[in-house]
Design brief:
Elements: E1 2-3, E2 32-34, E3 39-40, H1 42-45, E4 51-56, H2 61-66, H3 70-79, E5 83-88, H4 100-109, E6 115-118, H5 123-128, E7 132-133, E8 135-139, E9 145-149, H6 164-174, E10 188-189, E11 196-197
Parallel strand pairs: 4-5, 5-6
Antiparallel strand pairs: 1-11, 2-3, 2-6, 4-8, 7-10, 8-9
């Protein structure tokens, strides 16, 4: 069965099968090229207390609204021994705004203090069922999905009332219940070069 992914606006529905809460991380041996030139794999990026994967890009206005929070998220991950990688899966724009060179410039301009890597042919996004930028997937120390969706509840940092991801990380570390454990990711659609197959 072929599932078609909308390349339309941020609010378009995406009939994509996503990883469910409790599912194990997939494609953990897939090679991702970081902007530093290093080749990475999720299985080696995962730390003692888990792994956070954020699907992002360079120019989506939703990413632009949220990317100032990325470094703070990275610091929380580091303090809690959680691995982190931010992934660019926009293969349809690889020769343009989401080229490897543009990613390197973005990482430097934003002082990214984490891995920012290319997801060639959106293989990881397809495996996870990621649809938006930004779209987050938090795994525990056993690489089981414990939270997915939005970073928080507002594009405006001063208006955030529910820091979903930060709360999920804190609760995962403390052993508390993560509630909510799934929210709707709001953002631009990932620009795929072909429909997902399932």
């Amino acid at each position: 069965m072929v599932l078609f992914v909308s390349l339309g606006n941020a609010m378009a529905s995406d009939p994509v099968k996503q990883l469910e809460i409790g599912d194990k991380a997939v494609n953990t041996k897939q090679v991702l090229k970081d902007v530093s030139g290093y080749e990475l794999q999720l299985k080696t990026l995962a730390a003692e207390n888990g792994l956070l994967v954020i699907f992002s890009c360079n120019t989506c206005p939703y990413v632009v609204a949220w990317e100032d929070r990325y470094n703070d998220i990275a610091e929380q991950c580091k303090a809690n021994n959680i691995g982190l990688v931010v992934v660019n899966s926009n293969e349809a724009k690889r020769d343009d705004a989401d080229s490897y060179e543009a990613m390197q410039k973005k990482a430097k301009a934003m002082n990214y203090n984490f891995y920012y890597a290319v997801d060639t042919n959106h293989e990881l996004a397809d495996a996870f069922g990621a649809t938006k930028t930004p779209d987050v997937f938090l795994f525990n120390g056993d690489l089981e999905l414990v939270y997915k969706g939005a970073i928080d509840d507002s594009k405006e940092i001063g208006e955030v009332e529910e820091p979903y991801l930060k709360n999920a990380m804190a609760n995962m570390i403390s052993g508390a219940v993560i509630n909510p454990n799934s929210t709707k990711a709001i953002g631009c659609t990932i620009k795929r070069i072909k429909p997902m197959e399932n």
